[in-house]
Amino acid sequence: MRAESGAIALPPGFIEEIARAGDQAEVLRIAAEWLPKIIGGERSSVSLPHGDDRLSIHAIGGDLVMQPGADLPIDGSLVGAAFRSQQVLVVGDLDGTDYVEAPVLRSGGLRSAIVAPMVSNGRSLGTLNLGNSQLGWFTAIDEQRISAIASLIASFMNVHELAERERTRAATDDLTGVMARQAVLDVVGAAFASDPKLPSLLFIDMDGFKTVNDTYGHQAGDQVLRLVARRMERLLGSSDALGRLGGDEFLVMIREDPQGDRAAAVAEAMVESCAMPIALGAVRIAPRLSIGIASAEDARSTAGQLLLDADQALYSAKRGGGGIARADAQIRSRAALVAVIDREIDAALERGLLDYHYQPIRCLATGDLLGAEALVRWNHPEYGAVPPQLLLERVEATGRVDRFTEWSLNRVAGDLAYARTMIASAGALTFSVNLSRPQLAWTGCATSFIGSCNAHGLETRDLIAEVVESSEIQTGDAAEATLRTLAGSGAAIALDDFGTGHNALGYFTRFPIHAIKFDRSLVRAMATDDKARRILTALASMSRDLGIVTLAEGVETQRERDLSAAAGIPHGQGWHFGHPSSLAGLITLARRELDASSGAGIAARLALPTLR
Ligand code: C2E
Ligand code: CA
Ligand code: CA
Q1: Residue 496 Cβ contacting ligand 1 at under 6 Å
Q2: Residue 536 Cα, ligand 1 centroid: separation in angstroms?
Q3: CA-to-CA distance for 154 and 31, rounded, in angstroms?
Q4: Which among 53-62, 68-77, 366-375 has the top mean pLDDT?
Q5: For the segment 363-379, what is each residue's pLDDT rounded down to a tens digit?
Q6: Which CATH superfamily does the domain covering 356-513+577-606 fall into?
């Protein structure tokens, strides 16, 4: 028997920690940590109501006896008895009881237990549970102590619950009346914490919403968002949640019933119900939704992981032309890679783990080396080669365009300057560097480009900027300003992937273009399609007239080379002419070719015209 002495004073450290807790979960975690220290049990846990007739085990201090998330009936369990009676219950010998959890506790080495209900305003919020390996361990003083702790915890739980409710109320989206971004994310987090298997997420995006806004005005766009939100809301149950993440993006959390797949059914109903035409003045538009679904398959998933899965599923739905897509293993592994990229990208940039490889650009007729395209490489020790386009997508999505672009331009300029010192007759060798639309739209882009060239003793025209034709580059926007500044400073601009976009012809006249790279799809089509041959011949001839240099991309075979040359395209790039290689590899190749030909190849240098 332990001595029973001392008044019921709780340690000030404990009270301070509890008072500092940010939410209910933290309150409970702190309680579970301190309980054994204050009362001298060995193992502690907290149980919370789950449904109408069960309690589930949550915060745990000490070694596990019951698994977190395990659940017990209120009827027949010790925790249930304390919960229901709102009395502290002490069990001096677990062997002598037939509570349902007694066998598990005994096999975990516990002999005695004490359970205190957390009661606030007459309502049981859960129980604090403590166990010990000795018979008859808990005394009347312990009963008073745990009772004091339980009521302290209960009042803090209450405070947090009220604050939480207030936050949620304040966190509605003004436009649509559904939850605002942070609110719905919080709800997802909380649902996940209470049972990771039950919530499924729908990541929803409206197809062509930008067009609605641009064509009919923002008020019309707002009206469509409001109606769509209402239509979606109608399909949800009381324990589901709907929030607007921003723009035309919505997030729905579905609480699954353990058998069914409600998420898929709700998604289908949403697509159907939202497609009913909406009248905007004289016109009617039928909103089309794309939805990505993710459900937790095992308890190891995290809320963030599930969100990423749903986002990636939406991305794949969009890429497939819209509709519904579910996160599958492929999407999951992409999502896992995305998470790794997002987490490690800063370190990779800082520690020089990103690299550039260079792919030769050659004269089609002579095979002479003219320059090389810089292609970013990240060889991750665990995940292998990170696809450059995915890397760029994450750079953009995570707001690192400025850092990446600074690094990229400085690195490629430095590599070219170095290559030129290493190759005796490399005076005219150029490097091409890709600049995505978000990179061009970064206001520091032109300065960084020009500055990098200056810093390494290059002329601006020694680096060629490869940009992708895009209907989104519009007169007057930041990307166009960058292009004009670059062209004005003497830099050359090449239109990349030509033939995959939409408004190619508009680009010729609106923007300062020095070179066009015909996409591999066009080059490949020439082998089988006479029309493709004629189109490329006409485009090459028109470009020549406009003083624009052309290049065939992705030339893999001698025949593709021949057809490209016959179409009147002077330059080529592709596996037929050389794979991308390290800078050292390119230098070796260039020395062999350029130095051996004593500069003859230089005569065929990439002759870029001055800007019209
Ligand atoms: P891109 O600009 O069209 O680059 C050419 C891509 O085609 C490269 O893929 C290259 O390895 C590949 N390729 C080269 N020859 C052949 C061939 O004969 N056949 C086929 N099938 N493919 C060939 P990579 O390196 O995976 O780059 C993919 C894309 O990522 C690039 O497409 C470019 O859009 C982007 N990218 C790469 N590096 C950068 C960068 O530093 N900045 C930016 N903004 N984008 C980059
Ligand atoms: Ca390119
Ligand atoms: Ca390309």
Answers
A1: yes
A2: 21
A3: 11
A4: 366-375
A5: 999 999 999 999 999 99
A6: EAL domain (3.20.20.450)
As given in the structure block, the two tokens for residue 236 are 């949800």
Q: Whose CA is nearest to atom 12 of ligand 1?
A: 554
Higher-pLDDT residue of 18 and 415 is 415
Place of tokens 């729905």: 252
Distances, alpha carbon 208 to alpha carbons 28, 204, 247, 290, 300, in Å: 46, 13, 12, 10, 36
Instruction: Give nearest CA residue, ligand 1 atom 41.
Output: 376
pTM of the model: 0.60
Q: What is the mean pLDDT of residues 90-118?
A: 93
Number of alpha helices (DSSP H) and beta strands (DSSP E) in the chain? 21, 22
How many residues appear in the chain?
612
- 424 pLDDT band, cuts 50/70/90, is confident
Rounded-to-integer distance, Cα 389 and Cα 334, Å: 13
Tell me: pLDDT of 348 over 70. Answer: yes
Average pLDDT, the chain: 87
**How far is the first Cα of the chain from the last one, in angstroms, to the nearest whole number?**
98
Does 411 contact ligand 1 (Cβ within 6 A)?
A: no
What superfamily in CATH does domain 12-170 come from?
Answer: GAF domain (3.30.450.40)
CATH code linked to domain 181-327: 3.30.70.270
Average pLDDT of the residues in 381-406 = 92
Ligand 1 atom showing the smallest separation from residue 389 Cα: 30
Comma-separated ranges of CATH 3.30.70.270 domains in the chain: 181-327
Verify whether ligand 1 is closer than 6 Å to residue 221 (CB atom). Answer: no
SS3 label, residue 246? strand
